């Protein structure tokens, strides 16, 4: 299993004793929305911010899914093909189609992301992350599904 591609923002390149992991919301495809948040965290806290992608989401979807016209068409097609479907929006058409085709993928995305976060934490502890000192503390700033994922380890195994 390969590691996710993470990006980070920082004030300087020294090994900080603390960092922030930023987790995005559901159905996100690009980081643009989160860059102002990350910048504010870097400037306000003076620590590196790691933009951490949820498995199967960020930077992992076809460009077509970001095209409202195509997604409206997909939404209408879903309404036509699934009579019991009472509502559909262009914003969630691609995600709904993916979940409908393979519902387990949603769960596996969460499991994979939690494993990836655990590997990141272990990597920081061993001193393998260049922006952070060995054993640095990681705080979490999360939105939507990212906040849910961040809470799961707090509930035990």
Summarize the structure.
By secondary structure, the protein is of the alpha/beta class. Helix content is 40%, strand content 17%. It has helices at residues 35-45, 68-81, 93-101, 104-125, 145-151, and strands at residues 7-9, 16-23, 49-52, 132-142.
Task: Characterize the structure shown.
- By secondary structure, the chain is α/β, with parallel strands linked by helices.
- It is built from 5 helices and 4 strands.
- It has a 4-stranded mixed β-sheet, sandwiched between helices.
- The chain is elongated, with a radius of gyration of 18 Å.
- The model has no long low-confidence stretch (mean pLDDT 87).
Mean of residue pLDDT values:
87
Overall 3D geometry?
elongated
Provide the helix percentage: 40-55%
Task: Provide the spatial order of strands within the biggest beta sheet.
Answer: 1-3-2-4
Beta-strand level of the residues, as a percent range?
15-25%
Low-confidence segments, ≥5 residues, pLDDT <50? none
SSE order in H/E notation?
EEHEHHHEH
Number of strands: 4
Number of helices: 5
Oligomer: single chain
Helix and strand content put the structural class at alpha/beta
Radius of gyration: 18 Å
Largest sheet: 4 strands, mixed
Measured distance between first and last alpha carbons: 22 Å
Keywords:
elongated, alpha/beta, four-stranded mixed β-sheet, 157 residues
């Amino acid at each position: 299993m390969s590691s996710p591609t993470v990006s980070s923002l920082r004030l300087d390149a020294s090994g900080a004793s603390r960092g922030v992991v930023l987790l995005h919301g559901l159905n996100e495809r690009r980081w643009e929305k989160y860059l102002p948040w990350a910048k504010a965290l870097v400037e306000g806290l003076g620590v590196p911010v790691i933009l951490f992608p949820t498995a199967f989401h960020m930077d992992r979807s076809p460009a077509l899914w970001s095209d409202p016209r195509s997604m409206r068409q997909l939404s209408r097609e879903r309404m036509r093909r699934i009579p019991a479907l009472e509502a559909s929006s262009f914003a969630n058409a691609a995600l709904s189609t993916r979940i409908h085709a393979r519902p387990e993928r949603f769960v596996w995305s969460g499991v994979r992301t939690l494993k990836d976060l655990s590997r990141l934490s272990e990597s920081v502890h061993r001193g393998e992350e260049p922006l952070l000192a060995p054993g640095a503390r990681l705080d979490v700033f999360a939105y939507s599904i990212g906040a849910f994922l961040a809470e799961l380890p707090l509930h035990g195994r």
